[in-house]
Design brief:
alpha/beta; Rossmann fold; Dihydrodipicolinate Reductase, domain 2; nine-stranded mixed β-sheet; six-stranded parallel β-sheet; globular
């Protein structure tokens, strides 16, 4: 079955979504785009040969009656887009990350999706990169034995690159059950892309039954040595099991070595080669999910909410200064409260200097 799609938002991230349609995507046809900024709207319309362009979101939904909606807007506009999508009969929504900026907003997103029976996937497309899926199969095959320890490092603040790092870790580990979180934070790195968050987060995340993940997310994190791919390219995972180890570097290589192997198996990775194909498969997966409920999208809201719980749990633990055992309560304004405290501490340190 072929589905009709439209896109809301023609900002910088829209191009990545639209690239999925550059070659023939038989399951989904892109019919229209909407943006209040005329220059951007016309630019993207011409570049991607989009049939129809709109300046008003509701008019586009009412006129086009799409099956699938891409939401490529700032994170303050999430539940509102879903509400209108549900009202006009949209079946599936592909939404930019982060899922939400607050716990309250995340709950609203979940509630609106349930209200209209919307199938929602959050755009953390590394789950559809060939090399990430290949590494997950190595882990699933038990060649490494039982996974006991993971080190995950990335740069950028915890609401920018953090969601990607946490999501990929959960994907590779088959979405394990969270047990407890401990974290500490320091300083603020400004309001990067409108995401106020600590400049430095160090966390220990424990999953059932006996799996520990150490996460470092910081402006000056020791990420991938020799990486020259730019700000967004620094992410690295090291995975240890009872019979071997594996690694993944976003823009260099991935590989593994198990007991009995004289030399490790090693394969190239590359963001710029993988992202367009990954985005395309991320988009195609929504059509498959709409065709069959059993083909749940790997970035479904259900999985994304698990990652969001980890993300917010890190901030809550850093704010409270204690280990958080599940189930734990996350304060609705935890991002703002932790940000305010860290900004205040920074001002005090500056005065002392």
């Amino acid at each position: 079955m072929s589905y009709k799609a439209v896109i809301l938002g023609c900002g910088p991230r829209a191009g990545f979504h639209l690239d999925a349609y550059k070659e023939n995507l038989p399951e989904i046809k892109l019919a229209a785009a909407c943006d209040t900024n005329e220059a951007r709207r016309l630019e993207y319309g011409k570049k991607y040969s989009i049939p129809r362009l709109y300046s008003d979101f509701e008019t586009m939904l009412k006129t086009e009656k799409p099956d699938i909606l891409h939401v490529v807007t700032p994170p303050v506009f999430r539940e509102q887009a879903l509400e209108l999508a549900g009202k006009y009969g949209v079946k599936g929504v592909l939404m930019e990350k982060p899922l939400a900026l607050t716990v309250t907003q995340a709950e609203r997103v979940r509630a609106v999706a349930e209200k209209y029976h919307l199938k929602v996937a959050i755009n953390m497309q590394r789950r559809y990169f060939d090399h990430c899926r290949a590494l997950r199969e190595i882990i699933r095959s038990n060649r490494l034995g039982t996974i006991e320890f993971v080190r995950c490092v990335t740069r950028g603040n915890i609401l920018s690159m953090g969601p990607h790092a946490i999501d990929l870790t959960l994907f590779l580990l088959d979405n394990p059950s969270l047990q407890k979180i401990w974290a500490t934070g320091y300083a603020m790195n400004g309001h990067e892309y409108g995401h106020p968050a600590p400049a430095h987060i160090l966390g220990r995340i424990n999953f059932a039954p006996d799996l520990t993940v150490y996460l470092e997310d910081a402006d000056d994190a020791v990420g991938v040595f020799g990486e020259n791919g730019g700000y967004w390219q620094h992410m690295e995972l090291d995975i240890w099991g009872g019979r071997g180890r594996a690694w993944w570097k976003q823009n260099q290589d991935w590989g593994y070595q198990t007991t009995g192997m004289n030399e490790p198996e090693c394969f190239p990775t590359g963001w710029f080669k993988s992202d367009e194909l990954g985005q395309r498969e991320f988009t195609r997966a929504m059509a498959h999910w709409l065709d069959d409920d059993r083909c749940e999208h790997d970035n479904s809201l259900r999985f994304s909410l698990q990652g969001y719980e980890v993300l917010m749990g890190l901030l809550q633990s850093a704010y409270d200064g204690e280990i958080k055992q599940t189930p734990f309560r996350i304060e609705p304004q935890i991002v703002e409260k932790l940000s305010e405290r860290l900004e205040k501490q920074g001002r005090i340190l500056c005065r002392e200097d």
